[in-house]
Fold this protein.
Amino acid sequence: MNDRMERNDGFGMAVVVEGGIAVLAVLLAWLFQVTLREQFAAWGRPLALAVGRGIVATIPMLCVFGTLVHAKNAELRQLREHVEWMVGEMFPRKSAAEFALVALLAGVGEELLFRGVLQAKLIGWTTPLAGLWLASLLFGLAHALSRLYFAFAVAVGLFLGWITFQYGDLVAPMVAHALYDFVALMYLSRARRRPVSPETSPVSESTDDREVR
């Protein structure tokens, strides 16, 4: 009973964390005097253009994701299995509505924080290139489940950061981030083929033991 309640609380925790990131971004924007409103270029242009740009930006991200999840590399396979287990524990109902809400909150909150506030401020303190890299490294550290995932997150941060800087717009990276997260969550929730416990999760198993089985 307690295990079931803890798993169901995973969704609520994800909502609180991702929503809290958005609140943190707004507070930091006020503290550092960063005007977020000016970074929504779509308010002065057709919204469909920014949304369309975000949808197109999702395509290369999903291509890389597909390459990673189907890779035969042992470290990548272990990471994939661990993330599948985490998604299964946090979202036992595999609800598309839950995935959509968390993905939307992540897209809005994380882009406000890392691109809207941190990248904008770091660029102001340094240079566009340095600010882009520093914000992307922070984004990678926030998603550092492993060395490979850290590198992937940094690359995603650079890509989304470039879009933000190039077009002066947070709408496109928000759409790309949210859409990517939604598709990834949907895929990973359905890719899990066998139940595992924290004690026997893929991270705690050796590659040799898995291959013997």
About this structure: Residues 2 and 8 are 10 Å apart (CA to CA).
